[in-house]
Every structure is written in C-alpha cells, then in structure tokens.
Amino acid sequence: MLKNMTFLDEKKAGQLPVLNLAYIGDAVYELLIREYLLKKENVKVKNMHQKTVEIVRAEAQAKALNEIDSHLDKSESSIVRRARNTKINNPPKSVELADYRRATALEALFGYLYLSNNFERLLELFDLIKIKQN
Fold first, then answer.
1. Above 70 in pLDDT, residue 1?
2. Which residues does 25 contact at the CB level (< 8 Å), separation at least 6?
3. Any idea which residues carry the catalytic annotation?
C-alpha cells in the first residue's frame, strides 16, 4: 500500500492546515498504539480495543506530547505550536480544552512526520512516549 504513496517534502507537509495533519496523524497514532499492544499483549481483541481507546483519548495524548516536547526540533515544535493554537470550532465537552488542543498538536505532529515520509523520526518519538497500561 505505501509503495505507491506519494509523500511530501517537509516544507509542503508543514504548509498543510494543521487540522488536516491532525486528521491523518490521528490514524497514524492509533495504528502505532494498536501495533504496540498487539506485540506487547497476549489478550483478546476486545481488551486490546479497550486499552487502545484509553491510550488514544485526548488526556492521554496530551500527556504523551508532554513526554516528547523537549525532544522536538524547530520544525516539529512549529507544527505543535500551530496546532495547539488553532481555532477548534466544536471541542468535545467531556475533555478539557487545553488537553484537546495538546492532543490535536500530537496528532498533527504525527501526521506531519508521516506525510513527509519521516518514519524513523516518527518511531523515535513514539518510542519516547511512556504508554501507561493497567
């Protein structure tokens, strides 16, 4: 599937609207979490799904961004800052707005790295995130 995908250079990826980056980044981050759980857990799919939902919720993503924030380079920090500060029209009422903004920023960062074909850096940052499990 990825063989035929056309990636963007970092500049073009960075110029995309941050909510578009977050849209794809949400899927990338969830896929990484699912793969992580599949490799780490020997549990039923239903339980893996419940753990995935816990880990990808906005509060957990906001914490994940806090864990990698100090490791970001200038262009990555710029994406995060733009995404965190973007206007969000309909934030969920069940989540603190600050957490939702930080979660969106994490998703935008992962979308940016994915679209610019920077998988090595994407996985490097993902490895820095301490996934909490019950």
1. no
2. 106, 107, 108, 109, 110, 111, 112, 114
3. 26
